[in-house]
Amino acid sequence: MAETWLVVGLGNPGVRYENTRHNVGQMVIGELASRRGETLRAHKANARVAESWLRPGGAKLVLATPNSYMNVSGGPVSQLARFYDVPAERIVLVHDELDIPFDTIKLKTGGGHGGHNGIRDVAKALGTPDFPRVRVGIGRPPGRQDPADWVLDPFSSTERTSLALLISDAADAVELLVGEGLLAAQQKHHAPRA
């Protein structure tokens, strides 16, 4: 039987946050669902979920976005992990990352939360930080702007010109991670763009 992977895009619920930097993880889940002709539907784990496949005969994908706020994402993620019986090593978190320049994707498994409260809460709820992460760079705020305000702002008009490509690249990174492993995804997405 094909392995099941849980792919979770972190963000905040509601129209107010829909197009903000903090919700780029949810945008990537939207792209992955769209590629498969799927729609996210309400799930009892306080999340929206679409079930699909990486490719015919490949791994099963459970694409999810918690309905909770970013800082309390752990509850929905751990409930989904239990519901679908997915171990931490097959739970991919897709999230925004301040310490990576905009338009850059980095992948890793485990490590600290780097001040990201969504990651902190998921690691606490799962009892381990050892899950794969697709980190979508949003860069640091200019000047003295508070990072907490920066992540809740919409992408700038300049950023929006390449946002669709960034989201598509992050979706590609998820598919490569699930299909071929972390190293293959890192080799492709950590290399400078041609």
UniProtKB/TrEMBL annotation:
The record marks N12 as: Discriminates between blocked and unblocked aminoacyl-tRNA. The record marks D96 as: Stabilizes the basic form of H active site to accept a proton. The keyword RNA-binding applies. It catalyses: an N-acyl-L-alpha-aminoacyl-tRNA + H2O = an N-acyl-L-amino acid + a tRNA + H(+). TRNA binds at Y17, Y69, N71, N117. GO terms for molecular function: peptidyl-tRNA hydrolase activity; tRNA binding. It is found in: Cytoplasm. Catalyzes the release of premature peptidyl moieties from peptidyl-tRNA molecules trapped in stalled 50S ribosomal subunits, and thus maintains levels of free tRNAs and 50S ribosomes. This is Peptidyl-tRNA hydrolase. It comes from Microbacterium laevaniformans.
